[in-house]
């Protein structure tokens, strides 16, 4: 089980990323990260002639694993990993 102890929304290359620092209750004093990317989906009904609609959703993002003994260090490392993403 995990608790979210920090959440940061970052903008990189005009895209939104969510970084959640998680406290791992199965391993005392361990913190990990969950990354998400906001995507915009086009929604069209099959039988409709109306305009397209858009929905924003958060999609899981796989980046190198981050795990440290404190939340601040984990967040710092996660943001470093995020800064390494190419456009």
Q: What does this 3D model show about the protein?
A:
By secondary structure, the protein is mostly beta strands. The protein is built from 1 helix and 5 strands. The chain has one helix spanning 71-83; strands at residues 2-12, 15-24, 30-43, 53-61, 67-68. Strands 1, 2, 3, 4 and 5 form a 5-stranded antiparallel sheet that branches. β1 and β2 (15-24) form a beta hairpin. The longest helix is centred in the C-terminal third of the chain and has 13 residues, at 71-83. The N and C termini lie far apart (34 Å). The mean pLDDT is 88.
Q: Count helical runs.
A: 1
Mean pLDDT level = 88
Based on DSSP secondary structure assignment, what is the total number of beta strands?
Answer: 5
Catalogue the unreliable spans. Answer: none
Which structural class matches the secondary elements? mainly beta
Helix content: 10-25%
Layout of helices and strands:
Blueprint: E1 2-12, E2 15-24, E3 30-43, E4 53-61, E5 67-68, H1 71-83
Structural features:
mainly beta, 5 strands, single chain, 1 helix, 5-stranded antiparallel sheet, 87 residues
In brief, what are we looking at here?
By secondary structure, this protein is mainly beta.
């Amino acid at each position: 089980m995990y608790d979210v102890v920090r959440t940061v929304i970052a903008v990189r290359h005009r895209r939104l990323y969510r970084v959640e620092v998680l406290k791992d209750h199965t391993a005392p004093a361990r913190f990990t990260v969950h990354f998400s990317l906001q995507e915009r989906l086009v929604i069209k009904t099959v039988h409709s002639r109306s305009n397209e609609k858009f929905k924003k959703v958060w999609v899981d993002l796989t980046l190198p694993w981050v795990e440290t003994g404190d939340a601040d260090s984990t967040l710092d490392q996660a943001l470093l990993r995020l800064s390494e993403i190419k456009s």
